[in-house]
Amino acid sequence: METDYLKRCFGNCLAQALAEVAKVRPKYLAHWLHHYRKITKAQEEGRQEKIQLKEEYDNSLKETRMTEMLKQEEYQIQQEYEKCHQPLVSAAISTKETIFMQESTKSLENEALKQECLPGTSSMIPELPQQIPSSDSPGQTDRSVKNSTSNK
C-alpha cells in the first residue's frame, strides 16, 4: 500500500533522488540501512520475546488454576470421607460405650448377688430388677429332673 502511494505520487523522482544520495553520500545511506536492519531485528526479537512471555504467563495461570482445582477437589474428598466415616466412628464409640456399660452392669449384678448371700443384707437392690428367689437351688432342680426320668 505504501509502495503504491510512493510510485503514484513521486514515481521516478524518488528513485532519482535516492540514486543521487547514494552517489554523493554513500556512507550515510549505508549507515541508515545498517541501522534500519538492527532496529528491525531488535523489534522482531522483542515481539518474539513478548509472545514467549505471554505463553509462559498463560501456562503459569493454567497451572495455578489446576492447582487450585486439585486443592478444592482434595478438600471435597476429605469432607466426603469424614462425612462417610463419621457414623462408623460414632457407631464404634457407641458400641464401646454399650460394651463398657454391660460390663459395669454385670459387675454390679455380681456384687449384688454376693451381698444377697451375706447375712444381714437387704434383698432389695433399687438399681436392679428384682428376682424372685426360688426355693430350689439350681443343683437340686437338675437332680429332681434326672431322678424322675431315671425312675421311669
From TrEMBL:
CDD domains in the record: DD_DYDC-like
UniProt biased composition (Polar residues): 131-152
Q: What family does this belong to?
A: Belongs to the dpy-30 family.
The protein's name is DPY30 domain-containing protein 2
The entry's cellular-component GO terms read: Set1C/COMPASS complex
Q: Which residues cross the membrane?
A: none
Q: Which Pfam families match?
A: Dpy-30
Tell me the segments the record calls region Disordered.
Answer: 118-152
Give the superkingdom in one word.
Eukaryota
